[in-house]
Amino acid sequence: MTTDNKSSLPPQSPQWTLKFDNNKPILMLNGDWLAKNNNIPQLPDDIFKNCSANISVQINTDQLGSWDSGLVIFLWDVKNLASIKGISIDKDNLPVAAQQLVGLLNDRKPEPTTKPKYQFRPLYDLGEWTIHSLNSLGVTLQLFIFALKGVFKFLMGRSYMRLNDLLRDIRAAGPSALVIISVVNFLMGSILAFVGAVQLRKFSADAYVANLVGIATVRELAAVMTAIVISGRTGGAYAARIATMQGNEEIDALKVFGIPVTEYIILPSMLSLIITMPIMYLYACLMSIFGGLIVSLLMLKVSVIGFLYQTFGAVPFNQFIFGGTKTIAFAMFIGVSSCYIGMKSGRSAADVGVAATKAVVAGIVGVIALDAVFAVLADIIGI
């Protein structure tokens, strides 16, 4: 708020004077008190050292010019120092708007909070970390269950998920990521073939380079590398998008209107990954084998037919089923974890970046951990 009674005159510097009339303090305010001029005077802490307690300080505004929040901040300092000395402020002579604004302020400014020093308490820290981890795991599983319920409601035509949102997420997670999936997996297959050719040549086993590329690609690398790329690219984008919605209070608006956030936001994100990642897994296998084929043609002088016959002869069909199953599990994990991190983020612009970083790190670590679990399960069931 700004009052400007003397806009035609040049601004006068704000000044204050504390005078006494029959031992009654009077605070004289002169000039223009405008925060934009950055010349609001500072108030000394001992301004009321000559005043007795339980007395009232009058404010004289006869020479007060234009004012805005700069005057209100100054008066808040006056009010704060007066309350410390047990002195009251007579605001009757202030402009009405200034009286209302000063009346909204507390008598005492809040004390600055200091961060407590870190104390080395290993058992306490371990317990806190365990509780936080279990709580996060429980909330993530709850989101996953809600998303599964949303799938059935979508199939029955009673879901809040919009088909346009699902198609948009499929396009962002699938076709838009084909270039980076192609480059990463082509190079991975090429590296495998190159390393395999160098080592196997020592044992005159060059022909088994195709077996190495095929088994490693279909069973492990295509699924894991695709999941890592999607986690860094799409998972981080999901977390940043939801964190931005948190900052803009769009999530709160959805809750106010009674729209389930899990169905409206999380379900299309998770479904888009479940639909696209198995397809990208097969595409990644093709690109990796193609990379291995190019290196083998250049280094081992094998034929195209011979390399493909050796590759697919070494990779049974159940390996494709195993890799595809892992890919679906990776997709569900990336979708739910990235959306959960976005939902738990703060409301500032900096929290958007933090949420994206957390989603990428959690996605990559989680994918590798899940792959280790699948490796143990595969050994148990004999795949």
TrEMBL record:
Keywords linked to the UniProt accession: Membrane, Transmembrane, Transmembrane helix
Taxonomic superkingdom: Bacteria
Membrane-crossing segments per the record: 129-152, 173-196, 208-232, 253-275, 281-308, 320-343, 355-378
PANTHER family xrefs: ABC TRANSPORTER PERMEASE, ABC TRANSPORTER PERMEASE PROTEIN-RELATED
Protein name (record): ABC transporter permease
Organism: Commensalibacter nepenthis
